[in-house]
Write a structure and sequence with these properties.
The complex is a heterodimer. Chain A is built from two helices and ten strands. By secondary structure, chain A is of the alpha+beta class. Chain A has two domains: about 45 residues; about 110 residues, Rieske Iron-sulfur Protein (3-layer Sandwich). The longest helix of chain A is centred in the N-terminal third of the chain and has 29 residues. Chain A is elongated and about 100 Å long. Chain B has 22 helices and two strands. Chain B has a two-stranded antiparallel sheet. The longest helix of chain B has about 35 residues. The chains are: A alpha+beta, B mainly alpha. Chains A and B meet through strand 3 of A and helix 7, helix 8, helix 9, helix 13 and helix 19 of B.
């Protein structure tokens, strides 16, 4: 059917005709429309890349009394920014060491090698990692195994009898807290 | 009957099914391509179909939110009628799919089927291979048990090693600065929308290429391929001795696929689904995260490679391996296709195969991981403590309570990170033992700060007894100075 119509058209048409113009106009309009859709989509997906520091805040870890001098204890804080469906993933554990002089060290649970949860052994004063065998001393420094550095340490402060840490970010080598 | 035929013709006039069949399932292939070796691609496709059907069904129940994901998996396993069976089919289907796509890739590589004119078919196939691996990883992640949670942490830590972009890459994958609800949503979206979409698109191109270029003929040694005449010869071969893919050529595919389907059904019915190992709660730290078996080799590689190599491997070697996979047709340009004329290709396959099998078996044993409960849980055989002095008994106790056995086995019982201590006295003198305990070294932590001098004496006294009856303990060549004897802390 269509071929017959084409044959019926007059053979002499100018090089830029109406159909050509419409086609190019259509391409241009769609490119603009695609940008209006595409840029917000990219922004929506990539927004997570840029909310790192903004999501950090001071959160309470517990009473000073709950951390006896000379001991290292497991504590956990509620991630400062959560969604209602976060469940248990918003409760971030960490190791709190009360040094013999009364000062604190707050270690991230994540091994500096590849992020597995390190476990504290008070008898030998070591943190051991169950994944690839990284071991750390009680002050968080690297003892043996593949970790390239000691345990990550959170910033902390003491406010009205409570220990607080600056939480909200899982540490790794490119952002060691 | 005539009426049925007329109805068929009515549809065929409109849908042109006959022509479609001639160009697809009925297209002619060389007789030599109907070999029993050429069954792995179609079997992989069968697995994909199982995965699509069971996956869509599972998504009817599964909830991709951290507070309910684990509960919905348990619901599937124990409440939803046949939920356990569909989970099992999906799990075993994925195992078989990873295995079959790998075998398909190896077979195509060994048969030189990626050579002219099928370079693009290989590259698209490599994309399909990577997409399958991506499906396997994201799939084990949205099980959202403890292995899944820490598996994500491991991948994020690997990304975090990237220079400059590390922080952005981790945040993009996590959907924020921590592993949480957006992370699970992202892995779910990757697993059910993004990667399957990519996989099906690539598959369409892959099959289009197979139809346009034809299935490669069975390789013949000493019959090099000539680009000038290849297309002509292929046409001639098909015209002279060609058969239709279906039904003549496809019988072996149907039989093999039926065998695979049976195997998947049997595994699913009798072994069942992968049971999740506890909810993804980061505060439950008494966990020993392990990936599903196809990633154990990677897991092992990261434990065994020297730490200074890790950055290089992550930043350069892993991307380079992907580039090399895609570039195979352009790196191997010889005209011979038969493996007997391509020893390099065979050696490469054997080398990669042996490496992967070795790393996987090491990954299963993971001797580098301390055995976290060995110090309190592993029994001590009587012969190590029978007839020992009180001092040596104290030493034996110290060996336990200081967690030495998390890394050191006693006659095979305990951690494998350090050497077995059963015969340690024959290897190290008392002085060397003291030094090793206090200062560590050779991948052992130093215990100087956590052992009192009398504890070191007792521990070394016990270690001194650890030698076979017929092999005496090692001794210093020079007698120790009287002042130091018995006082390891003074050395």
């Amino acid at each position: 059917m269509e071929e017959h119509e084409h044959e019926a058209l007059p053979p002499a048409v100018p090089p830029v005709n109406r159909r050509d113009f419409l086609f190019r106009l259509g391409l241009a309009l769609n490119t603009v429309a695609a940008a209006f859709v595409g840029i917000p989509v990219l922004g929506y997906v990539a927004s997570s890349m840029f909310k790192g520091k903004a999501q950090q805040a001071w959160v309470a870890l517990g009473n000073l009394d709950s951390f006896p001098t000379g001991e290292t204890r497991l504590a956990s804080y509620r991630n400062p920014f959560t969604t209602p469906w976060d469940g248990a993933t918003a409760d971030i554990p960490c190791w709190v060491r009360r040094k013999p002089d009364g000062g604190f060290q707050v270690f991230a649970i994540n091994c500096a090698h590849l992020g597995c949860p390190v476990r504290w052994f008070p008898q030998s004063g070591l943190f051991m990692c169950p994944c690839h065998g990284g071991v750390y001393y009680e002050d968080g420094s690297r003892a043996s195994g593949p970790p390239p550095r000691g345990l990550y340490q959170y910033e902390f402060r003491v406010r009205s009898g409570h220990l607080e840490v600056r939480g909200g970010e899982t540490p790794n080598l490119s952002e060691p807290v | 009957m005539n009426r049925l035929r007329a109805l068929g013709k009515w549809f065929d006039d409109r849908l042109a099914l006959g022509r479609l069949y001639d160009q697809t399932l009925g297209h002619r292939i060389p007789l030599s391509s109907a070999s029993a070796w050429y069954v792995f691609g179609s079997a992989t496709l069968l697995c994909l179909i199982i995965q699509l059907v069971t996956g869509i069904c599972l998504s009817l129940v599964y909830v991709p939110a951290p507070d309910q994901a684990y509960a919905s998996i348990e619901y599937l396993d124990y409440v939803q009628p046949l939920g356990w069976y569909l989970r099992a089919l999906h799990y075993w289907g994925s195992n078989f799919m990873v295995a079959l796509v790998t075998i398909h890739l190896i077979q195509v590589f060994l048969f030189g089927a990626y050579k002219y004119p099928r370079e693009l078919t290989w590259m698209v196939g490599s994309g399909l291979f990577l997409a399958t691996i991506g499906m396997a990883f994201t799939g084990q992640t949205i099980r959202f048990d403890q292995d899944a949670y820490w598996g994500v942490e491991i991948i994020v830590s690997i990304l975090g090693r990237l220079p400059l972009v590390g922080e952005y890459a981790t945040h993009l994958l996590q959907g924020g600065p921590i592993v949480g609800s957006e992370t699970l949503s992202r892995f779910f979206t990757l697993h059910v929308f993004v990667i399957p979409g990519l996989l099906i698109s690539l598959l369409v191109v892959h099959i289009r290429l197979v139809l346009v270029l034809g299935i490669s003929e069975y390789p013949e040694a000493g019959k090099p391929m000539d680009k000038e005449t290849y297309a002509e010869e292929y046409e001639a071969t098909v015209a002279r001795a060609g058969i239709r893919l279906m039904p003549e050529g496809g019988g072996k595919d149907l039989v093999f696929s039926a065998l695979i389907l049976t195997a998947i059904i049997l595994c699913a019915a009798f072994i069942g689904p992968k049971i999740p190992n506890g909810p993804a709660d980061p505060s439950l730290i008494h966990t020993v995260p392990r990936p599903d078996f196809y990633f154990l080799s990677l897991f092992a590689a990261f434990a065994l490679m020297p730490p200074y190599l890790e950055g290089f491997v992550i930043v350069y070697l892993m991307p380079l391996a992907v580039v090399l996979l895609f570039a195979v047709p352009f790196l191997s340009r010889g005209a011979e296709r038969h493996p007997s004329r391509r020893p390099g290709a065979v050696v490469l396959v054997v080398l990669v195969g042996v490496s992967l099998v070795t790393l996987t078996s090491e990954g299963v044993r993971s001797p580098w991981s301390p055995e976290m409960d060995a110090w309190s849980g592993q029994p001590v055989q009587p012969r190590f403590v029978e007839g020992r002095s009180p001092l040596e008994h104290v030493g034996a106790t110290i060996l336990q309570v200081k967690q030495c056995r998390n890394c050191h086995a006693l006659d095979g019982k305990g951690g494998k990170r350090g050497p077995d201590l059963a015969g340690v006295a024959t290897r190290l003198t008392p002085d060397q033992l003291v030094r090793q305990v206090l200062q560590g070294g050779g991948n052992m932590p130093a215990y100087g700060k956590h052992l009192a001098p009398h504890e070191v004496s007792a521990l070394v006294a016990f270690l001194e007894t650890l030698h076979p009856a017929n092999a005496p303990a090692a001794r210093n060549s020079a007698p120790p100075s009287p002042a130091a004897a018995g006082h390891p802390d003074k050395r």
